Amino acid sequence: KISSGWTGGNSADTVGPKISGIAISGISTTTSTLKFNTNENAVYEIMYGTTTSYGTTSTKTTVFAKSHTFSFTGLTANTNYHYQIKAYDMAGNSTLSADGNFTTVQQDNTGPVISAIAVSAVTHNGATIYWTTNEASTSEVSYGTTNAYGSLSSDLTLMTLHSRVLTGLDSATQYHFKIKSTDGAANVSESSDATF
User: Fold this and answer.
1) pTM of the model
2) By C-alpha distance, which of 102, 28, 36 is closest to 69?
3) Which of 6, 97, 130, 165 supports an S-S bond with 85, CB 3.0-4.6 Å?
4) DSSP 3-state of 105
């Protein structure tokens, strides 16, 4: 009898998944999003922290896939974070990525700076108030015949170039007004009282 000598070989998977396309996006004061790919279906866990010792490890995912998204939450503003990906294939082989890092956005605690206040297009019953802010914010003008005001014209759209048209005013009358702008982080700035 002649034997071929072929034993079928060994097809066992002993190589961990290759990690690629690592990208961080959507960075805010307390969150960010990590996306990456693997060359084979895999689950993963993320180690992260403020040093390369990490300190926090996410729960390992349970759904095998090649495209992956992880959301960092509960972070501290204006802080540098390190992270490392550990991916596992269906045979249990694992691969570690290189260390990566990102810095969260600084918390905005300052109201917008109001400047270039101007009154224009004054008629017998109306006027337009203009101003600018150094960051996108709302447009509000309180106005009336005293500095108690009593009337409000507002636009809650965030912008840096502002104007509010005041109508229905009394002829030959002095009006007081005050500007208020609120930025996207809810910081508020107000101008001092002015008249026209």
Assistant:
1) 0.62
2) 36
3) 97
4) coil
